[in-house]
Amino acid sequence: MPSELRLSQPNAAHPKPDTSYGTGAHPGLLQLFLCPNAEAIVKEAVRNATDNNRGIGAGLIRLFFHDCFVRGCDASVLLDATTANPEPEKLGIPNFPSLRGFEVIDAAKAKLEKECGGIVSCADIVAFAGRDATFFLSNGVVDFKMPAGRYDGRVSFANETLRDLPPPFANVTVLEAMFKAKGLDLDDMVTLSGAHTVGISHCSSFADRLPADPSDPTSMEPALASSLQQRCSRGGDPVVVQDVVTPRDLDRQYYQNVLDRKVLFKSDAALLSPQTLKAVEHNAKNPGKWERKFKDAMVKMGATSR
Fold first, then answer.
1. Is 129 in the same domain as 183?
2. Are residues 257 and 281 in the same domain?
3. How many CA atoms lie within 13 A of 277 on its CB side?
């Protein structure tokens, strides 16, 4: 039986709250009533972070994704190690040491506790931060409402990250199955993969794609592969941008990169499969299409509870 983690500060998640305020209202509506400035406070924290480093914005979107895909959107990714459980999600192989943005969540949480203590869950803060990072990195283009009312979890295990988070070497069949397990369909998978238009990656995550394989029609574009091989051979585990064309902006360029074979991961190249190619082409060629779909997919992912 999994044991519950003791909550540790500053990344302490509140347990499932008592909503017996005598109203029977949805907890998200209660939050808006009891803490009307909640979203503005989170947005300010994200703005401050992304003004200094847009890469943190990419980290916040990834943090939201990684939280929702393991035990649902419950902020369990924030829980620190304890004596009872020395290996929580944040120390799982897909998360450590690459997952970023914890300090932004901490900053927002600290201000919210002063404004309206005990009202806003950490899970909602993570969701709002992912939404706000999307807004700032898209230069205001991708703007949407993110429902509130999530509960915070107390259970967090590193070994569940490998089970639930799609790996960078996954093929389209594996990706479809892993997204389906979270209530997301094939088009949601293609849409959410577009977040790879921002952020960085360690060379170890795509080393299996170097050098380019001329016999593989989905292999990396040779010039990019050669450039990356030189950079990645310098020792250690260097990082590179995921989108070599518009690395600072969240936009539909990712899909053109897929078509041009200028993407890093096997899971990106997998979108050239017959099941997903048409969606990639539509996203690449139609301004505004992917942006609208991304809003809906983020909200849908934000409702994941498993």
1. no
2. yes
3. 7
d(CA 280, CA 262): 14
Q: Which residue has the tokens 């790996």?
A: 167
Structural domain boundaries enclosing 157: 27-165
Where among 165, 181, 215 does a domain terminate?
Answer: 165
Rounded percentage of the chain residues whose pLDDT exceeds 70 = 91
The answer to whether 264 and 224 have CB atoms below 8 angstroms apart is no
In this structure, the dihedral spanned by the alpha carbons of residues 103, 46, 123 and 84, taken in order and rounded to 10 degrees, is -10
Of 166, 130, 162, nearest in space to 147 by CA: 130
| Residues 97, 113: Cα–Cα separation, whole Å | 28
| Structural domain count, the chain | 2
Please indicate, yes or no, whether residues 273 and 180 belong to a single structural domain of this protein: yes
CA–CA dist 147, 128 (Å, integer): 9
* Active-site option among 14, 66, 202, 282: 66
Q: Is 66 a residue of the active site?
A: yes
Check whether 76 is labelled as a binding-site residue: yes
Q: Convert the pLDDT of each residue in 31-80 to its tens digit.
A: 778 999 999 999 999 999 999 999 999 999 999 999 999 999 999 999 99
Q: Is 290 helix (H, G, I), strand (E, B) or coil?
A: helix
Residue 67 annotated as binding site: yes
Residue 148 belongs to some domain of the structure: yes
User: DSSP string spanning 39-52?
Assistant: HHHHHHHHHHHHHH
124 is in an annotated binding site: no
pTM comes to 0.91
Res 27: pLDDT:
65
Residues belonging to the chain: 306
Q: What is the pLDDT of residues 235-263, one digit of tens each?
A: 899 999 999 999 999 999 999 999 999 99
251 marked ligand binding residue: yes
